[in-house]
Amino acid sequence: MVRTGSASVTAGPTLAVVAREAGVSVPTASKVVNGREDVAPETRRRVTEALDRLGYVRRPRFDAARPPRLVDLVVHSLDSSWSGAVLRGVEEAAHDAGLDVVVSASLPRHRAGRPQRGWLDKLTARGSAGVLFDLAELTDSQYLWLEQHRIPFVMIDPAVEPPSGVVSVGAANWQGGVTATEHLLALGHERIAVIAGPRRRMCSTARVAGYRSALASAGLGHLPEYVRHGGFDESVARHRMRELLDLPEPPTAVFVCSDRMALGVYQALAERGLRVPDDVSVVGFDDLPESRWTSPALTTVRQPLAEMAATALRLLVRMMDGERPEGTRTELSTRLVERASTAAPKT
Question: What integer best gives the mean pLDDT of the chain?
Answer without folding.
Answer: 87
